[in-house]
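Lecture 7 notes: from sequence to structure.
We start with the chain below.
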Amino acid sequence: MTLRQLQAFVLTCQLGSFTRAAERMLITQSAVTLLIKQLESALGVTLFDRTTRALRLTSAANEALPIAERMLRNQDLLTDSVRALAEGSRGLVTLGVTVAVAAALMPRVVAAFRTQYPKVTVVMQDLSPEQLVMKMLDEEVEVAIGTLDTDAPDLDLTDLLQAQMSLVCQKGSPIAEAECIPWAAVLEQPVIAIKKGSGIRTLIDETLAAKGKTLVPVYEASLVTTALAMTAEGLGVSILPPYLVPQLPPYSQFAVRPLVDPVVSRGLSIMTKKGRSLSHAAHSFIEVTRRTVGTGAGSPC
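Predicted structure tokens for the same chain:
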């Protein structure tokens, strides 16, 4: 039994003629007759009583017709569904994002994506960099966004943006009056630092060590969001890439000033697993992310 045979059967029933069914299918009448005979042979029943004047459905045909119609509708649904997946208008994107990036960047990215692709579902997981690699390798997420400070040879990384490390403080603070802040001036401020061992903290410590300096923070935090909340309370300044500072209230009270002497940048990458084919929806999400985030963050000095 084939779908072509079912189509010939259903059209013949609906139109009452082999000739009309053939015209609808753009084939010859003899081809329709052959398809019906093949279907009758496959089912082991007679579907039509043929006379010189008309076709009459047998009881077997009357019973089979609604089932055949449903099968053809399901075929159309399958075709439409797969086509929608291929075009990216429907589907699922499984996304892994480091925690700070998820809070600072992804809400506006997801909002922009939903506007363009309202029928694509986005499932996002907030993860540590270590979890990000594991989830990618286990194929639990299709696309990841974050910064890796260790090698991951089984992942493909492409740059999303590069941004100059910056000092984050409350607007109106004396140090915010300068457009750019020397690293040496950071040591004169109460600093809320990300804990030792993190990528950001390692970058800060290595930068200051190269100048013969050591950072002694007044507070340490595990999460960027915690450091920013403490900065918002006036407990000190933070040192972060500007793309980790959300643009919505209450974070709009922050002044973000690039650090110089030396200029140090930290990047953000889009990650995929090598050898894994991405869905069209995932490609679309990456394109929207690039357009929404842009190629840089902050004003370099």
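Points to note: The two ends are 72 Å apart (CA to CA). The first helix runs from residue 3 to 15.
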